[in-house]
Amino acid sequence: VCPESSAQISKLLVNWGLGDQEARDALIPLIYGELRRVARRHLGHERRDHTLQSAALVNEAYLRLVRQEPPHWQNRAHFFGVAAQMMRHILVDHARNRIAAKRGGGAPRLSLDPEIAPAPKQEPDVVALDNALNKLTALDPQQGRLIELRFFGGLSIEDTAVVLGISPATVKREWATARAWLRRELKRDAEK
Amino acid sequence: VKPERWQKVKKVLAGALEQTPAGRRSYLDQACPDASLRRGVESLIAAQASTGNLSATIRGSI
User: Fold this and answer.
1) Per-residue pLDDT, A121
2) Does the pLDDT value for residue A46 go beyond 80?
3) Is the ipTM of this complex over 0.85?
4) Are A99 and B62 inside 8 Å of each other by CB?
5) Does A145 touch chain B (CB under 8 A)?
6) What is the pTM of this model?
7) A99 touches chain B (CB under 8 A)
8) Which among B44, B51, B58 has CB closest to A186?
9) Three-state DSSP class for B36?
10) Across B54-59, average pLDDT
């Protein structure tokens, strides 16, 4: 990304933060393209036991596109808000293709940020997590989105609150119950 | 599970998770007279607490 377009992207993020939908529409393909490039580079080196760090990939794409912090930190939250969903799709597509091609040993696991998923060695594979998340979204759309932001985008409680337009206290409460639900669902799925 | 039911379960669960593990039983006695709702909440609390070898079992199932 050349410096001019980096400045342009920062400007678009600011305008989007102010409610400009055209800025959002202009940003979406740029963000998606960069996420795919970053993902492809990492997935190319993927070994059988390799774990993916979705949040790290999103962060790398962000740094490549924006280079410096935009004037308002809320704009950063908006970027990660859309990027989390896009990266989820990229990783799930990749995992499904891998399973279809019958190469390697099943889907790659998703390595979750330790702060977000404190239980060690708990790395649900991408496809199982995606399925469980779809069920949660059907049950409670806001909670589905919240988990997506935290798991795939690595958003903090505060950034998640900005993206969802709710208070950090509500994010914490919703996060706790959504995570309990997700754990039970993944466990049941594994026992089938 | 239906969305309306999840909203009920979620409310009781959120309250229970804010208690200490020792305080949860008396909290549920008060906040959750519905036995089947309570079973749902308790299974979620158990899932939350169990860390186990979840990743191994998930991988084994694929």
Assistant:
1) 39
2) no
3) no
4) yes
5) no
6) 0.79
7) yes
8) B58
9) helix
10) 37
Indicate the residue type of A87. Answer: M
A95 touches chain B (CB under 8 A): no
Percent of chain A whose pLDDT exceeds 90 = 27
Which residues, including other chains, have CB under 8 Å from residue A43's CB and lie 6 or more apart?
A52, A94
The C-alpha atoms of residue A184 and residue B7 are separated, in whole angstroms, by 17
pLDDT for A8: 83
Residues of A in contact with B17 (CB under 8 A): 176-177, 180
Predicted confidence at residue A119, as pLDDT, reads 41
Average pLDDT over residues A133-159: 92
Residue A4: its H or E element: helix A3-17
SS3 state at B32: coil
Residue A155, classed as helix, strand or coil, is coil
Confidence of residue B14 (pLDDT cuts 50, 70, 90): very high
H helices of chain B, in order, are 3-18, 24-31, 35-49, 54-61
Instruction: Identify the DSSP state of A113.
Output: P
Contact (CB<8Å) A177/B17: yes
- Residues B14 and A176: beta-carbon distance below 8 Å: yes
What's the rounded Cα separation, in Å, for the pair A182 and A121?
Answer: 16
Q: Which residues of B touch A (CB under 8 A)?
A: 1, 3, 6-7, 10, 13-14, 17, 43-45, 47-48, 50-55, 57-62
CA quadruple B51, B52, B54, B56: dihedral positive or negative?
A: positive
